[in-house]
Amino acid sequence: MTKFRGCIDIHSGKVKQIVGSTLTHDDAESKKEDGNLVKENFVSDHPSSYYANFYKSANIKGCHVIKLGTNEANDKAAKLACETWPFNLQVGGGITIDNALHWLDDNKASHVIVTSWLFTDDESGKILNWDRLASISKLVGKNRLVIDLSCKQVKQNNETCWIVAMNRWQTLTNTEVNKETLKSISQYCDEFLIHAADVEGKCEGIDEELVRKLGEWCPEGFEGKVAYAGGANSVEDLDRVALLSNNKVDLTYGSALDIFGGRLVKLEDLISWNQRH
């Protein structure tokens, strides 16, 4: 059954909502080559624990904490969130085989979310390293691993497809999000997290075709273990995702949500939707 999941995005040590396609640096004041700043929809005055407590009080399971950049300030904020609700929040951003157990055991995350570390270079570009996937799954346990397949929409041979994007969604890999990819990777992980990077932070609507495909491609046993993020701007999007995915995909809200400065969606309404369903 489709449900709402929470998120806590951290950039430069602060809880923020950012337009994903503009995120090229760890520091919000770092400029892109064209001179434009990272576009921030919201920067919170509250610590990450403030938001973790929202989700804890409402018992919203499967929420993720994403560090948008690898620096000490982001690590500190993510640690605070995880320790606020021990072994209930998933943490991602810069996770490797060297620090995964630290986040799980010492910093009390329920799962680690991994993307960029899984990809290595060959002559064709960034490829999914299956040996790395198998090794980190064996180390932390399949039941504590989330694979982030956040992606961008591209055209190949006049057909729409979605390609995994790494490094804060700026680098396209050679891995396509499709039925075969999800089925193969599902042998090593407990859940999937998929941001639609093209619409992330824009509040202009979900990528309905991607959501529909995720429902079709969902591996057996992963119903309710695929979380989609990007573009949600109304409570009714939960009904839309439930219908499009045949109740197999969960939905995350960001910039549209009132606790992140949004005016389109109230957290209490999402909590009520979960409770009714």
Automatic annotation (TrEMBL):
PANTHER family xref list: 1-(5-PHOSPHORIBOSYL)-5-[(5-PHOSPHORIBOSYLAMINO)METHYLIDENEAMINO] IMIDAZOLE-4-CARBOXAMIDE ISOMERASE (PTHR43090:SF2)
Cytoplasm recorded as keyword: yes
Entry keywords, A to Z: Amino-acid biosynthesis, Cytoplasm, Histidine biosynthesis, Isomerase
Any one GO MF annotation of this record: 1-(5-phosphoribosyl)-5-[(5-phosphoribosylamino)methylideneamino]imidazole-4-carboxamide isomerase activity
Presence of the UniProt keyword Cell membrane in the record: no
Organism: Pichia sorbitophila (strain ATCC MYA-4447 / BCRC 22081 / CBS 7064 / NBRC 10061 / NRRL Y-12695)
Protein name, as recorded: 1-(5-phosphoribosyl)-5-[(5-phosphoribosylamino)methylideneamino] imidazole-4-carboxamide isomerase
InterPro entries for this protein: Aldolase_TIM, His6/HISN3, His_biosynth, Isoase_HisA-like, RibuloseP-bd_barrel
Cell compartment(s), UniProt: Cytoplasm
EC number assigned by the record: 5.3.1.16
Organism phylogeny: Eukaryota, Fungi, Dikarya, Ascomycota, Saccharomycotina
Record's GO cellular component terms: cytoplasm
Main location (coarse class): cytoplasm
Protein family (similarity comment): Belongs to the HisA/HisF family.
